[in-house]
Design goal:
It is a single chain. This protein has helices spanning about 1-10, 50-55, 60-75, 90-100, 135-140, 145-165, 175-180, 225-235, 250-255, 270-280, 295-300, 335-345, 345-365, 365-380; strands spanning about 80, 105, 120, 125, 170-175, 190-195, 215, 240-245, 260-265, 280-285, 305-310, 325-330. By secondary structure, the protein is of the alpha/beta class. The protein has 2 domains: about 1-200 and about 370-380, Rossmann fold; about 200-365, Glycogen Phosphorylase B (Rossmann fold, 3-Layer(aba) Sandwich), CATH 3.40.50. A hairpin with a 2-residue loop joins strand 3 and strand 4. It is globular and about 60 Å long.
Length: about 375
């Protein structure tokens, strides 16, 4: 979504000034001299000897220095932030505001109301911190059971709240109403704007022919519900093969299981993924965390594919149950298996749902509609 917005702005004659962390995967940019040093926080940041590095995820002197220099050199009309915590840190918001630059923030997860960002407590859905009591992350050791890492994330959240950097943001874009409701304790309603993700439907043709297989696309991790999906295939006689596209921490464990109807394809991207969607019978999104506005669902709908998905987070705002797909309770193996067999056995239902899904994307989730709403937010700030 970030790169789609960037491309849209540039194609409409709007200068986009990049600010990021150095990474070998970055696209070419004219502003790389201002990018900050690469930081990797995936290791145990609570270990002794790593304290100074760990504290840089709370406040980054390098980021504040570089963003200040970049703003002074380019004089932007506004700053639009995506996933700035940890590597860039919210401290850049305050630097922009001191220079009179309005700030827009798009929310991709629940970091502002959950220090571990997933709203999960040892794999279970959690709302304990929504009211602002971040001590829950410390008490429950939510950071993979580590007291040190949980303590650091607790300190980070408390410090950021006291500094009020997020509260200085002028507009907050939530891609789902569920997300907007989740963060209402952090922002007044007049700052919040719900703008769902969009998809360029002009580049996607409805495709009703298929090779009769269900498709899972996503990270192979517990919160994505992939274990539940595979258990449904192990426990029940399901009448359609499953192709699993993606990688993640559970890949080795899951791929070692002997499930004759399940094929693991590994990581795929670009044309390969598009072809897999186009030839599938339907897509399965069995998430067990509060999804925001998953692009995988919109992409499937754009290809006129029905979606079987969990009734959780922002997903019901995309998938209309018994109209564009089927919704099931998250983690309910029996119900998931029933939904899969129901669609697998009824080609007319698949066709009807697929047609309705394509129409829904065209009417409500086109990239044009997304970008029009985005520009309206920009104009609120720049023209004021």
């Amino acid at each position: 979504m970030f790169f789609q917005e960037r491309e849209y702005l540039r194609s409409n004659g709007i200068d986009v000034i990049d600010f990021s962390m150095h990474d070998e995967r970055n696209f070419n940019s004219n502003e790389t001299a201002y990018f900050v040093t690469n930081k990797n926080y995936t290791s145990n940041i609570g270990k002794p000897g790593k304290l100074s590095a760990a504290l840089s995820l709370v406040h980054s002197p390098e980021s504040t220095k570089k963003i200040g220099e970049l703003i002074d050199a380019t004089k932007p009309d506004l700053l639009h932030c995506h996933n700035i915590y940890h590597q860039l840190t919210p401290s850049i918001i305050g630097i922009a505001k001191k220079r009179g630059v309005p700030v827009v923030l798009t929310l991709h997860d629940y970091k502002l109301v959950c220090p571990t960002y997933l709203r999960l407590k040892h794999g279970q859905l959690c709302s304990d911190c929504l009211g602002g009591n971040f001590s829950n992350v410390l008490r429950h050791r939510c950071a993979n059971g580590s007291l040190a890492n949980s303590a650091l994330l607790y300190v980070e959240s408390v410090v950021q709240r006291r500094l009020g950097n997020y509260e200085k943001v002028d507009r907050v874009i939530a891609p789902s109403h569920f997300m907007a409701e989740s963060v209402k304790s952090r922002f007044p309603v007049e700052k919040l704007r719900v703008i769902p993700n969009g998809i360029d439907i002009g580049k996607v043709s409805a495709y009703n022919r298929n090779e009769v297989y269900a498709l899972y696309i996503g990270r192979l991790s517990r919160e994505k519900g992939i274990k539940t999906l595979l258990e449904a295939y192990r426990r029940y006689e399901i009448h359609v093969p499953l192709k699993v596209c993606g990688t993640g921490p559970l890949l080795e464990e899951l791929s070692s299981k002997s499930l004759p109807k399940v094929e693991f394809l590994g990581y795929k991207s670009g044309v390969e993924v598009q072809t897999l969607i186009a030839k599938s019978s339907f897509i399965v999104v069995p998430s067990e965390w509060y999804e925001n506005c998953p692009m995988s669902v919109l992409e499937a709908m754009a290809y006129a594919k029905p979606v079987i998905a969990s009734r959780i987070g922002g997903i019901p705002e995309l998938v209309a149950d018994k109209s564009t797909g089927l919704l099931h309770e998250p983690g309910n193996i029996d119900e998931l298996a029933t939904c899969i067999n129901q669609l697998a056995e009824d080609s007319s239902m698949r066709e009807s749902f697929g047609f309705a899904a394509r129409q829904r994307v065209e009417n409500d989730f086109s990239l044009q509609k997304h970008n029009t709403a985005l520009m309206a937010v920009y104009r609120e700030l720049v023209e004021d």
